[in-house]
Amino acid sequence: MFLPPGKQSSVIFPGFDGGAEWGGPAYDPQSGLLYINANEMPWILTMIAAKKRPDKVETFAAAGERLFAKNCMSCHGQNREGAGNAPTLIGIEKSTPAAKLIRYCKRAAG
Ligand code: HEC
Q1: Distance, CA 85 to ligand 1 centroid (Å)?
Q2: Fewest CB atoms less than 10 Å from the CB: which of 54, 77, 88, 92?
Q3: Closest residue (by CA) to atom 10 of ligand 1?
Q4: Ligand 1 mean position to 87 CA, how many Å?
């Protein structure tokens, strides 16, 4: 009879390493018998709930790249090099105060 595994323990016999085993059979030509190494070891099987995986964690740098690609790249270029009227943003943090940059970001991202 097959009992599907569950959270309630069940005995399996022979166990997962039971029954005919490695070691190989041996044949005795005088008696005509084939000897087979067999284990009769029961196992207890119990299912346990898998641990919940933590939600995907995004670093600040990865979030910045994602947001830049979505909101800024189309004008300021793939590598912030600038294009057309949109100036380069490379090194912008050295020449422009953070508060002003945040205003640009809010305006650009809507
Ligand atoms: C539709 C095109 C467009 C998009 C999209 C855009 N920008 Fe701009 N950005 C410009 C243009 C044109 C200028 C130059 C004129 C100005 O300052 O308004 C500029 C200027 C800037 C400046 C000032 C640069 C300087 O040298 O003073 C910053 C900083 C900036 N953008 C950041 C951003 C960021 C961050 C995003 C995305 C969140 C973004 N921009 C999206 C077109 C764009």
Answers
A1: 9
A2: 54
A3: 86
A4: 7
Residue 27 Cα, ligand 1 centroid: separation in angstroms?
85
CB 3 within 8 A of CB 9: no
* Alpha carbon distance 104, 80 (integer Å): 14
Closest CA to 45 of 7, 83, 73: 7
Cβ of 92 less than 6 Å from ligand 1: yes
Establish whether residue 87 lines the binding site of ligand 1, counting it when its CB lies within 6 angstroms of any ligand atom.
Answer: yes
Please check whether residue 15 is in contact with residue 29, taking contact to mean a CB–CB distance below 8 angstroms. no
CB-side neighbour CA atoms (13 Å) of 63? 5
| pLDDT tens digit at each of 110 positions of the chain | 777 889 999 988 878 777 777 778 899 999 999 998 887 888 899 999 888 877 788 898 998 899 899 988 988 999 999 988 899 999 999 999 999 888 888 887 76
Greatest Cα-to-Cα distance within the chain, rounded to the nearest angstrom: 97
